[in-house]
Amino acid sequence: MRSSPLLAAALLLTAASPPPSPHELVAAERAFADHVREHGAKAGFLAFAAPDAIMFQGGPVDATAAIAAWPDRDPPGPPLQWWPEFAGIARSSDLGFTTGPASIPVRYFSVWRRQPDGGWKWIYDGGTPLRERLAGGPETRPEFLALAAGTAGSAERALAEIAPLEAAIAERATTDAKAAHLGFLAENGLAGGPGHASQRGRAGQAAALDARPAMVRLSPQGSAASAAGDMAFTRGEARWDEDGQRRWGHYARIWQKRPEGWRLIVDLLVPERGEPPVAPAPAEGIADPH
Description:
By secondary structure, the chain is an alpha+beta fold. It is built from seven helices and 13 strands.
């Protein structure tokens, strides 16, 4: 069978196209940090937030509205700095993440989505508070997640495949949160929790999960997936008991499709302040990455 000229041209174009690169996300993250340093937190965060971006402030909130209420001037003192240490991108080059240390004791985590104009903006920005600052500085060379070797074929199918896995984690986490997460974490995945330095590798994951609550009640609240169906971002509310007190916060995750199935690449538990709401916030509909 002879190939049509259009098919041949399409194959040639595909072969000539460069593979997706997380270097784009690192560049976006560094531009974001530079903008904050030069123009202040309010202007910088607004400039790089997607229209549908969310943050957690006593629960998930519209990021643009929340940031608009910040003071126009930063408080006195050294400017906030942060730098990417680990980054990954979807095969469809429309979704990705960066995470790393900051000039304060926190591990930041940003989830990025390509915008209609081709640029990148974050759809989630958060951070796990730590007891001590992580090592490194702005000159740190980030590590990159290898591109996925499998795909679900679409964002909708990816989220449909992940939903029962999220449910399985939530069910087991009520009795053994460590085992619930270790069962899905990739070997090079990152796990982190309140106060504990997030680490990759099996030993680091186990140590990080040991520092988290032993039993947690998890409620999914939102998700987004790449067009190729190889990467997804999920988030939700977490509740636990500690020293006889009710505690709460949220979780934020990156999933990647691999030949052996979906695996967690990033799983962070971030505490919230104050008393938890009377009931968990309702789950949102599927977020389309386009």
